[in-house]
Amino acid sequence: MQAETRAAIEHARDRYPRARSAILPALWAVQHEMGQITPDAMSEVAGILQVTPSEVEAVSTFYSMYFQHPHGRHEVIVCINVSCALRGAEGIVDHLERTLGCASGETTADGAFTWSSTVECLGGCGGAPTMQVDHHFEENLTPESVDQILGALRSEPTPHGEHAVEAGGVAGGSAGAQEPRRRGVPATTGPAPTEPSNAGSTALSTEAKKRRGKPGQ
Ligand code: FES
Questions:
Q1: In angstroms, rounded to a whole number, what is the distance separating the alpha carbons of residues 42 and 67?
Q2: Which CATH code is given to the segment(s) 74-154?
Q3: What pLDDT score does 159 carry?
């Protein structure tokens, strides 16, 4: 675990009355660095928070947004529930499959994206068809807007501590170590809460747990 990650966990720990309340942001920090939650990382988190490794593991494996296996740098989830389906979600799914060259639940060869479709409403029906990209919503999708979104993400600098599957040198692999991408990582700064925060858990509760082709975790 990098010193920066450890510092982020300690910072989160110190914001809560009880250290175990920081398990969620601690796991976010780990996943941001490593792209997954490894058993060793769980043990380290447990040590920093002074909880048992089984407590950390229980949280990590309960929420589908914590990955037990390597994922791409960006997570893309496309809703195919009724509102999105009526507004062309299947066409978006087909376009993603063609464009990314892999099926739902898989990761692109360059490690840039892991994508999946979900039958569970993402809660963005007003902008259907909708997809979630690194915890942000992208709405009123068309094949053209999807291409723009993916292109912009691919042009982002590759963060330190590349965590996805090794880049295969195909389109989208970027060179140069830059500042770590913090997109989608709940903020760990600001005033200390007076009680355990739900930061992160709100997104988690809306996360699709029954994805079609959901990767094993
Ligand atoms: S049906 Fe797709 S976001 Fe609700």
A1: 12
A2: 3.40.30.10
A3: 55
